[in-house]
Amino acid sequence: MEYQFLPNTPIDDADIIIVPIAYGESVSAKDGTQEAPEAILQATQQLEYYEEDLEWSPMKFMKICVVDALKSYADIERFYPLDLEKKLLLSLGGDHSITPKITKELLSKPSTILFLDAHADLRESYLGSKESHATPAYQLLEQGHKMLMVGIRSLFESEAQRVKSDKNIEFYSDRALQKSSTKEKLLDSISHLEGDIYLSIDMDVFNPAFVPSVGTPQPGGMDWYFANDIIEQLFLNKKINLKGVDMVELIPEASQVSQVFTAKLLQKIISHWGKSQEFHKKEMLGSQMEVHYE
User: Fold this and answer.
1) CATH superfamily, domain at 11-290
2) Does pTM surpass 0.85?
3) pLDDT exceeds 70 at position 28
């Protein structure tokens, strides 16, 4: 698999590492999340190299590696942790149960998880499984991390009670985020984050008008531009150390709207990270320089 038709650089030499995780066995509604990583990468072929918001071509300056797909929890345990000094790690799921599997191996100390999701995912178990797509937030808290939860609009009563009582949770519901003052409060909170950060994006956080095909869709949801505001604010923050990003719960569909949206969001993350690391000031030795195109 490739990103934007670009050649894969050896992992040790890459600035960006994309890890497809084709695992979807914990879903409880629509099936197909295991097919998302390949579909998202195929959709990147529809994107221009130029990233219009930051006005540069990121892949002229950065090298990328897409590794072979992981297909099980055991594969995740074997692959992580990585030596990520000055590298961007992007994991493409798969269902949301992969997130605590990644963080268990990747995060060596308590960190902050920026958790974008339509669901609270705070159940200890669901349908008899503690390794469910409905339990990642619970597991992340058990690992000792703090949670900044954004866009939630579906939760069980016990989850709502925990949100109110747990001091390690900062919570922004989807309804509250319809107010500009609450959006500003969230962006200010992101600007004051410090230390190790992990970003987890469940694609059902978005309004189904933008991302119509996910494992467990919900009405309401985030729009494209506010998601970009969150990403921009995160990478403007010089006090954080981003340990990784995952994007989960997408299901490919015939119109390709869902996967192109996700591919474009992936590009935005790459662009903002690259600018934050000042790659635009370096020599143009990136993957795009290795290909001929029209």
Assistant:
1) Ureohydrolase domain (3.40.800.10)
2) yes
3) no
